[in-house]
Amino acid sequence: NRCILALEKIEGFEYKIFLISGSYIIFKERYRFKGDSEQLQQYLTTMILKNLEKLQGESTVGLDKQDVDQAQIIYSYLKNKKECSYVVIPRNWLKKKELTKLELGLKRLVDML
Q1: In this structure, are residues 70 and 30 in contact, taking their beta carbons and an 8 Å threshold?
Q2: C-alpha span between 44 and 31 (Å, rounded)
Q3: CA-CA distances (angstroms) from residue 74 to 1, 34, 38, 107?
Q4: Residue 58 zone, left/alpha/beta (φ > 0; ψ -120 to 50; rest)
């Protein structure tokens, strides 16, 4: 039941962005990034905050075989893609008083690109 933000480089300055909670893709988008890394980091922070309610609402209660299979596919994809970087976002980072930790985690992700 992890929250994960993944960035996959497509070509040039174009990326796929995935926000995942457990076995569910909460947000996905192709994003053309032409600014500096700080601009990308700010965009990611804003996107997470817009989807905060969905992230906080997910739970492991009632998982079935299909949910487990979906999670395995997602995590296998993240692990085996060379052009894909991701960061696990602990749920406590999603609280207002912990947003600095979220921003530092996103900075590390952007710096990996």
Answers
A1: no
A2: 11
A3: 12, 28, 27, 23
A4: beta
pLDDT digits (tens, 9 = 90+) for 63-95: 677 777 777 787 787 777 777 888 999 888 888
Q: Which residues contact 74 (CB under 8 A, 6 or more apart)?
A: 4, 20, 23, 25
C-alpha closest to that of 55 among 98, 92, 3: 3
Residue pointed to by tokens 């992230």: 55
Helix spans in the chain (H): 37-50, 52-57, 65-80, 99-111
User: Is the CA virtual torsion 110, 24, 27, 55 positive or negative?
Assistant: negative
Predicted confidence (pLDDT) per residue in 31-47, tens digit: 888 777 888 889 999 99
Tokens of 59: 């739970």
Give the residue among 87, 113, 112 at the shortest CA–CA distance from 102. 87
